[in-house]
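Duplicate of #3305? Posting structure anyway:
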């Protein structure tokens, strides 16, 4: 069958499957296709990443993609074995939005045997924190909602550091913006668990507002704000299909975890909600982010590895991260690296994504003081469509975060001696990217004079500007003025490769290249 379409099974459980319908489009397919399962019509879709629910365990299935009665692609799969289903309402949960269902849900989770399912039928389940265990599957039915309590006095707290008995080691549970600090446990929390899948058509509702978690957000009251989903030192964890919204702080926060997958998930937070990043893998490795939709007011995805204490002690980068077929809307940055990246970030590929109405597309934030282990390398963006992004590409080595962020040491553009506090940016590649209706600048790259960005590659890139562009600063650093329709500004780079880069409609020169050792 040679139809120009490729169908792939991305993941499956006993009850559902996630398909990738590749017709060479990004996020949305060229047409609306019909999906048939074992010869029967199941649903229609215009999404490249599409989920099917309501399957039976331990069963053979054939799936076909059709258009106008023509079979364009097909595949077969076998659903996983399932032993029993534990319905949370059989354990005392009411799902009425009034009773605190936390204890009853926790009972179902702890009683669930291997190869089984904890099931949430339709209803609103009020909870504080629920805790995961290993070898667990949780399914949320359509119209099932996990609804978070907003009274911080009802939440457990996670200490930042607990000293070992011999005073030689420490146990880290809580974290806030790159430091080991006390926090409230997440609405869904996992610590040292593995082999967990949480999936379905339900909603994880944080209920946050200016009346509770977002009030006076810069002040720690009791502990730092919880995440909607927080896992610490976990392995083989998958989230699929769910909608996460109105998070107290960062929405999805995997921390020091390996082999983590996010498939066909959605994250929604208001544009004015504080610190409500969508997905922040921190010191995580082997992460797949596929078919995820973000609409929020902070960074959609932020790759992190802690501030200098955690970077020096653990030297654990975030690495081997794939982001594809995602839609990112209305955030500060579509894909951000940093600024808490003292352990380094490397081997990241972002491809086949749409960035829409974000302040920046790629956003790298670092600064003096992140440390010598804060190395960024092999960061690749390709086949990206940007629409109404203020500044598509930003690399900022003078990010003015933290209490000392505006000091002379951090913000000086003069040469400083290289020491154990100096970060490094190595290889960045941007290929096959279209940016239409941008506002502020096509690209703004500013490295440290004492440790220049080693290599930036730009190939097959086009940038056009909005008819009535808004002025703003292209990067959060001292000493730059608001502007609009700036071309490419690059400063303090060892080597740049620029091939078939077209900037149309800028004010002034298309490229301003300063302190570049070699340009190809």
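Output from current build:
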């Amino acid at each position: 069958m040679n139809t120009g379409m490729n169908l792939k099974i991305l993941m499956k459980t006993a009850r559902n499957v996630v398909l990738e319908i590749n017709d060479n489009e990004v996020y949305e397919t060229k047409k609306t296709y019909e999906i048939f399962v074992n010869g029967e019509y199941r649903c229609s879709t215009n999404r490249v990443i599409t989920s099917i629910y309501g399957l039976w365990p331990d069963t053979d299935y054939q799936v076909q993609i059709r258009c106008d009665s023509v079979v364009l692609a097909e595949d077969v799969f076998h659903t996983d074995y399932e032993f029993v289903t534990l319905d949370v309402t059989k354990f005392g949960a009411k799902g009425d939005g009034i009773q605190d269902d936390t204890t009853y849900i926790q009972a179902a989770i702890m009683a669930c045997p291997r190869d089984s399912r904890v099931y949430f039928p339709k209803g609103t389940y009020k909870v504080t924190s629920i805790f995961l265990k290993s070898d667990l599957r949780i399914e949320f039915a359509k119209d099932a909602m996990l609804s978070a309590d907003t009274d911080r006095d009802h939440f457990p707290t996670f200490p930042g550091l607990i000293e070992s008995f011999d005073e030689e080691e420490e146990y880290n549970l809580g974290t806030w913006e790159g430091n080991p600090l006390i926090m409230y446990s997440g609405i869904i929390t996992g610590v040292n668990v593995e082999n967990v899948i949480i999936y379905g058509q339900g909603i994880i509702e944080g209920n946050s507002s200016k009346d509770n978690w977002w009030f006076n957000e810069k002040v720690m009251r009791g502990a730092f704000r919880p995440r909607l989903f927080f896992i610490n030192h976990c392995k083989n964890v998958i989230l699929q299909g769910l909608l996460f919204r109105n998070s107290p702080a960062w929405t999805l926060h995997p921390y020091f975890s390996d082999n983590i997958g996010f498939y066909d998930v959605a994250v929604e937070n208001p544009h004015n909600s504080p610190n409500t990043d969508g997905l922040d893998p921190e010191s995580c490795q082997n992460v797949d982010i596929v078919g995820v939709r973000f609409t929020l007011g902070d960074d959609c995805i932020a790759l992190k590895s802690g501030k200098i204490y955690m970077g020096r002690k653990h030297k654990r980068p975030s690495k081997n991260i794939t982001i594809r077929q995602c839609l990112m809307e209305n955030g500060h940055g579509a894909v951000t690296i940093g600024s808490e990246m003292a352990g380094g970030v490397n081997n990241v590929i972002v491809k086949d994504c749409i960035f829409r109405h974000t302040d920046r597309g790629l956003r790298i934030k670092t600064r003096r003081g992140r440390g010598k282990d804060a190395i960024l390398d092999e960061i690749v963006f390709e086949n990206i469509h940007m629409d109404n992004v203020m500044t598509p590409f930003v690399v900022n080595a003078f990010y003015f975060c933290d209490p000392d962020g505006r000091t002379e040491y951090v913000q000086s553009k003069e040469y400083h001696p290289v020491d154990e506090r100096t970060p490094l940016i190595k290889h960045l590649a941007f290929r096959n990217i279209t940016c239409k209706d941008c506002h502020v600048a096509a690209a703004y790259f500013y490295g440290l004079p004492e440790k220049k960005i080693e290599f930036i590659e730009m190939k097959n890139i086009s940038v056009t500007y909005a008819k009535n562009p808004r002025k703003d600063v292209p990067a959060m650093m001292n000493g730059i003025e608001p502007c609009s329709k700036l071309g490419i500004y690059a400063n303090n780079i060892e080597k740049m490769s620029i091939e078939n880069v077209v900037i149309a409609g800028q004010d002034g020169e298309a490229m301003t290249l300063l302190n570049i050792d070699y340009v190809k």
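Confirmed duplicate; merging threads. The CA atoms of residues 279 and 301 lie 5 Å apart. The chain has a mean pLDDT of 96.
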